[in-house]
């Protein structure tokens, strides 16, 4: 029946399903992160001697299954949005399979195929506002020795490496004789490359002065508040007193440990700030009473426009700075092409939010930048904050929308890479978790947990003292996303050499 409808044989289907599972499981639980290193192999076995539409369909099917497994939590917000997003994102898998089944028969397949994957990941991260979620490299966010090279290549380098290893293992499967006879040069190259990469990771973790210096310029003590406010209560008028009491109670406990800055998550205040100004007045009174600066999230308004904002109040009650979110969530904070596609109104959980106009550097207790919600998945935003003088980064978010699902940890993975890419501390403050302190090495120093060790959908606070160093831009900080563009050259070179070889 399957073959009659789709043209896909049962064996091909199981190969596609296997690849989708192997690639998705690392994003469902980090303990399966090693599966990504051979997750493409079943798909390429299915693609052997397949070209054109057949190759596209097999790869597209793999993509559909992968994305359903990976972002199923979006159903808690919008079913139609989930379906449309999955069908769109699977196209990148389809294109990958369509083109790579040709590349894999060329001499330089171990370079061209990873290059193609990186190019497609980069395209997905920018086209139609961008959705850089579950990039392949993110699957390794707990593998500290591997991810250190991100300060040179960004997350793209990890994705490139994973696909390259997949290609090497695949070459073993398809060899008619024992693989080392045919591919020993490839394995030697990979061995040298891996040794250099792991060696670099070892150096960064154990000997890097920038990270391990015992003489930081300054130390700041930060407190993150995780209130665990249920999403269904956040905007209910009758819940406002309960919400503010929860924040004040947790903050009162945190203040006893004398932090330099208190951080509340995204949209902490259950109101539009300018429409009910007495909330800001009461918040100022509370801050003045404790003499502790407060960073908090709130919806703000200017004229007829609404913004998702982060605001800083000094210990003396002065509103010092405001940052309005720059990169909005499609179908969450705005609807792309709303005027042309009115039917899309049905999948938007929130009305239109306006885009902010500029990067804001907060300067108390030291220079830092704020990434709101999923802004931390966009590497260029973090990089631009650091370029403008931020010595640490803060991510305030509310992931309560998505329930008790892997979404919270998928989001955390992106934050880990932003810390490593820029070699700065990153502090996450999430309504329902994961609230965490992440070192410049990508190590998760601590999280807000309850007595059972749970770190999502629990309430509490966490305080850490983080050292601040002179801000020296990393290679990635200076040159940004060079690897996707370099991958274009790799791909063209490999394709050109393949064409020349065929003609000769």
How much helix is in the residues?
A: 40-55%
Number of strands: 11
Report the sheet-strand fraction.
5-15%
Overall tally of domains: 2
Give the oligomeric state. single chain
In CATH, the topology of the largest domain is named Nitrilase/N-carbamoyl-D-aminoacid amidohydrolase
Describe the 3D structure.
- The structure is a single chain.
- The protein has 504 residues and is of the alpha/beta class.
- It folds into two domains: 2-208 and 485-503; 214-468, 4-Layer Sandwich (Nitrilase/N-carbamoyl-D-aminoacid amidohydrolase), CATH 3.60.110.
- 46% of the residues lie in helices and 14% in strands.
- It contains 17 helices and eleven strands.
- The protein has helices spanning 2-6, 10-28, 41-47, 52-70, 79-103, 109-124, 144-147, 150-153, 155-174, 179-206, 209-212, 240-255, 278-290, 379-387, 407-422, 475-479, 482-503; strands at 218-226, 261-263, 294-302, 305-313, 319-324, 368-372, 392-397, 425-430, 436-438, 444-447, 460-468.
- Strands 5-4-3-2-1-11 form a six-stranded mixed beta sheet.
- Helix 2 runs parallel beside helix 4 and helix 5 packs antiparallel against helix 6.
- The longest helix has 28 residues, at 179-206.
- It starts with a helix and ends with a helix.
- The relative contact order is 0.12.
- The model has no long low-confidence stretch (mean pLDDT 90).
Gist of the model:
The protein is of the alpha/beta class.
Short key terms for the protein model shown above:
single chain, 504 residues, alpha/beta, Nitrilase/N-carbamoyl-D-aminoacid amidohydrolase, six-stranded mixed β-sheet, 17 helices, 14% strand, globular
């Amino acid at each position: 029946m399957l073959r009659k409808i789709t043209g896909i044989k049962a064996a091909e289907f199981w190969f596609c399903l296997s690849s989708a599972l192997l690639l998705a499981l690392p994003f469902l639980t980090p303990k399966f992160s090693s599966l990504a290193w051979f997750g493409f192999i079943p798909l390429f076995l299915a693609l052997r001697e397949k070209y054109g539409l057949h190759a596209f369909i097999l790869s597209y099917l793999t993509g559909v299954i992968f994305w359903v497994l990976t972002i199923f939590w979006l159903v808690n917000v919008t079913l139609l949005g989930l379906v449309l997003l999955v069908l769109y994102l699977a196209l990148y898998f389809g294109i990958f399979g369509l083109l790579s089944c040709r590349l894999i028969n060329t001499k330089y397949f171990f370079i061209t195929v990873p290059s193609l994957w990186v190019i497609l990941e980069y395209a997905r991260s920018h086209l139609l506002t961008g959705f850089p979620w579950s990039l392949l490299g993110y699957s390794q966010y707990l593998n500290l020795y591997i991810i250190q090279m991100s300060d040179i290549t960004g997350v793209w380098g990890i994705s490139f490496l994973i696909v390259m290893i997949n290609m090497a293992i695949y070459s073993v499967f398809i060899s008619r004789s024992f693989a080392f006879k045919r591919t020993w040069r490839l394995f030697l190259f990979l061995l040298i490359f891996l040794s250099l990469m792991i060696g670099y990771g070892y150096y960064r973790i154990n000997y890097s002065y920038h990270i391990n210096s015992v003489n930081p310029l300054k130390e700041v003590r930060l407190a993150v508040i995780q209130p665990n406010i249920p999403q269904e209560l956040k905007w209910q008028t009758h819940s406002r007193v309960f919400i503010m009491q929860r924040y004040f109670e947790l903050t009162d406990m945190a203040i006893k440990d004398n932090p330099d800055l208190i951080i509340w998550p995204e949209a902490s205040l259950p109101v539009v700030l300018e429409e009910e100004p007495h909330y800001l007045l009461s918040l100022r009174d509370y801050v003045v009473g404790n003499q502790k600066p407060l960073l908090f999230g709130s919806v703000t308004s200017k004229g007829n426009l609404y913004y998702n904002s982060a605001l800083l109040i000094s210990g003396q009650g002065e509103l010092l700075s405001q940052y309005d979110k720059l990169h909005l969530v499609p179908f969450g904070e705005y609807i792309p092409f709303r005027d042309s596609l009115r039917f899309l109104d049905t999948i938007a959980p929130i009305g239109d939010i306006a885009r902010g106009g500029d990067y804001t550097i907060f300067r108390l207790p030291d220079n830092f930048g704020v990434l709101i919600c999923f802004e931390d998945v966009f590497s260029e935003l973090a990089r631009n904050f650091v370029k403008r003088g931020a010595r640490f980064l803060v991510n305030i978010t509310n992931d309560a929308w998505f329930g008790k699902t892997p979404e919270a940890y998928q989001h955390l993975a992106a934050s880990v890479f932003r810390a490593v890419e820029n070699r700065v501390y990153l502090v996450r403050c999430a309504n329902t978790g994961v609230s965490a302190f992440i070192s410049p090495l990508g190590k998760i120093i601590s999280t807000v947990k309850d007595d059972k060790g749970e770190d999502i959908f629990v309430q509490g606070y966490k305080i850490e003292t983080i050292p601040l160093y002179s801000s020296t831009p990393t290679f990635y900080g200076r040159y940004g996303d060079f690897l996707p563009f370099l991958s274009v050259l790799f791909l063209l070179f490999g394709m050109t050499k393949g064409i020349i070889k065929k003609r000769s």
